[in-house]
Amino acid sequence: MPDTMNPAINPDAKARLDAVLSRLNAATQRSGNTARLLAVSKLQRGDAVAELAACGQTAFGENYVQEGVTKRRELEAAGLSGNAAPLEWHLIGPLQSNKAELAAKHFDWVQSVDRAKLIPLLAKGRSAEAAPLNVLIQVNIDDEASKSGCRPEEVPALADLIAAQPALALRGLMAIPAPHPDIEKRREAFAKMRQLFEALRRGHPGVDTLSMGMSDDFELAIEQGATMVRVGTALFGPRPAKA
After folding, report:
1. Phi and psi (nearest 5°) for 2?
2. What is the pLDDT along the chain (243 residues), one digit of tens a residue?
3. Smallest Cα–Cα separation from 143: which of 131, 159, 154, 128?
């Protein structure tokens, strides 16, 4: 295993992480809300993830099940499974039914549950010895034909199905609003998600996570109540093309 998988602190990686955390902390101070940072490592090399982990970032998001599983195994083999600060792996991309059991086995969170069919498959794939799989319901808040996600009115039924599975832990909602050039349109979408989130919490008090906002708009998402923001480009630079 190359030494780059157990790197010393990379100054460039640390500078990028510090810049994002500075923006995040300023946004939380302005709004009075708190939010966690999820580093979106989709299509990034394992050594780039290792560099951010060496700087203290522990939560990483992957779009593709097999890529995420391979990357996690690679880093664990290199001794980066985590001791004092375990690495936490989130699936944030669309989930195919035939990959659900694999995702349940190898990820700590699945943020992209958008239909009932996935729920028993995730529960079946989660080992009885493992902690419950953290689950977010993905909402297509702007009703975009090209995006995954359930309709807002489908959230309560999906939430009840997830909550009924002991192997799953319902944690909240996720969304990828349309990247409107008009900032007020984005604000409106984030505000709608916050309303859905608050309604969900009334029926499910354990719900605590609203995942929304990316590199160019996560401050606005935090202002509107995001508790987790998903940042890739600002942490890793331009994403490599998929092979």
Report:
1. -65, 155
2. 344 555 678 999 999 999 999 999 999 999 999 999 999 999 999 999 999 999 999 999 999 999 999 999 999 887 765 444 689 999 999 999 999 999 999 999 999 999 999 999 999 999 999 999 999 999 999 888 888 899 999 999 999 999 999 999 999 999 999 988 998 999 999 999 999 999 999 999 999 999 999 999 999 999 999 999 999 999 998 766 665
3. 154
d(CA 153, CA 36): 27
Calpha distance 122→1 (Å, rounded): 32
**Rounded to an integer, what distance in angstroms lies between the CA atom of residue 149 and that of residue 156?**
14
**Structure pTM?**
0.93
Q: Do 177 and 189 touch, CB atoms closer than 8 A?
A: yes
Q: SS3 letters for 49-93?
A: HHHHHHCCCCEEEECCHHHHHHHHHHHHHCCCCCCCCCCEEEECC
Please give the Cα distance from 134 to 107 (Å, whole number): 9
Residues 6+ apart with CB under 8 A from 15: none
Rg (CA), the chain: 17
Distance separating alpha carbons of residues 69 and 62, to the nearest angstrom: 9
